[in-house]
Amino acid sequence: MISRRGFGRAVGAGTGAAAVALAGLEGLSAVSAARSSGATAPDVPPAAPGTHTSFASLKQVRAGLLDIGYAEVGPAHGPVVICLHGWPYDIHNFVDVAPLLAAEGYRVVVPYLRGHGTTRFLSSRTFRNAQQSAIALDIVALMDALKIEKAVLAGFDWGSRTADIIAALWPERCKALVSVSGYLITDLEANKQPLPPKAEYAWWYQYYFATERGRLAMEDTAKRHDLARLVWDTVSPTWDFDDATFDRTAAAFENPDYAAIVLHNYRWRLSLADGERRYDGLEKRLAARPVIEVPTITLDAERDPFTAPGDGSSYRDRFTGTYDHRTLAGIGHNLPQEAPTAFAQAVVDVDHF
C-alpha cells in the first residue's frame, strides 16, 4: 500500500450509480463461473447513450497525495473494473458504462483524476503536477487505499494513457486492459517532432495552453467552459448531446486546481514545463516505450480526429499479450459516452481472454 508517508519511497523505487443488489449478485456468480470455466464472454445488453445521467452517490478516500472523489457501482465483492476519464471530461464518461458492467457482476470504480471534480490535494504545498507518471501513481494509490490488488483498467484520452502506464510498469495490478486510441504513453523526446499538418491542426488547444493567453482563458471559468464545449463539438461530430449533458461534466471543471493541472499536463507533454525529479526514474522507463503484456483490447473511434491511421497498426507491436483491436464506425472521441455498450462489451470480453 502506498501511504502518504511512503509515497516518495514508492516513487523513487519505481514500484508500485448505486450498487446493483440482486441482479449484481447474480451477475457476479455468472462472471465467476464463466471466468473459471473459460466460457465465452456474455453479450452486454444494448443501452442507448444518455440512458443514465448521474451516479447515485460519490465517495471520498485519501490516497497518496490526494483525497480522491469517485463513484462506485455494483457488488462490493465483484471483480473490479476501474474506468478512467480524459480531458475535457469527467466521470460522466462512464455514467452509462458502469451500470452495464455492474449488471454483469462487476464492482466498477470511476475516480475523478487530479484537478477534477471532488478530488483534492491533501496539501496546499504540493506542486500541481500533471505529468503522466504522477497521475498513474494516483490510481495505484487509489487501488491501495481501496484494498484492490488487481483490476481490469479501462480508459480513454488521459485515462488510456494512465491505464497503459499501470499495465506496462505494474502489470501485477492490471488483470486486463481496454485502451481507447491504443498506446498513449508519452515519450517526451519523440513528442518534440512535428506531426503531419492535419494532426497538428486537431491539437490546436495544446498549443493554445502553451501561451499566456491560453493560461488566462483556462483560469476564466466562462472561457474555459466555452473552450471545452468547442472541443466536445469538434472531436465528436456525430454525437447529438444536449446542453445538460455537457453541463453535468463541466461542473467538474470548477475544481480549484483544474486550470493548473490541465495547463501543466499539456505544457509538460511539449517539454515546456518541468516535471518533478522524484518521477525521473519512472519517466525514463516510459520513454523506452515499454511493451504491455496483459490481455488488451484497443478501441479506435472512426470519427475521432486523433485516431491514428492504419487501424491500430501504428501501436500493435506495443501489445505482446492476448490482443484484439476494434474500430467503431461513426463514433467520435468520447467513445465510452457515445458508445457505452461497445465499451462495456470490450471490458467483459477482455476479462474473458
TrEMBL record:
<protein>
    <submittedName>
        <fullName>Alpha/beta hydrolase</fullName>
    </submittedName>
</protein>
<dbReference type="InterPro" id="IPR006311">
    <property type="entry name" value="TAT_signal"/>
</dbReference>
<dbReference type="InterPro" id="IPR000639">
    <property type="entry name" value="Epox_hydrolase-like"/>
</dbReference>
<feature type="domain" description="AB hydrolase-1">
    <location>
        <begin position="79"/>
        <end position="233"/>
    </location>
</feature>
<keyword id="KW-0378">Hydrolase</keyword>
<dbReference type="GO" id="GO:0016787">
    <property type="term" value="F:hydrolase activity"/>
</dbReference>
<dbReference type="InterPro" id="IPR000073">
    <property type="entry name" value="AB_hydrolase_1"/>
</dbReference>
<dbReference type="Pfam" id="PF00561">
    <property type="entry name" value="Abhydrolase_1"/>
</dbReference>
<dbReference type="InterPro" id="IPR050266">
    <property type="entry name" value="AB_hydrolase_sf"/>
</dbReference>
<dbReference type="InterPro" id="IPR029058">
    <property type="entry name" value="AB_hydrolase_fold"/>
</dbReference>
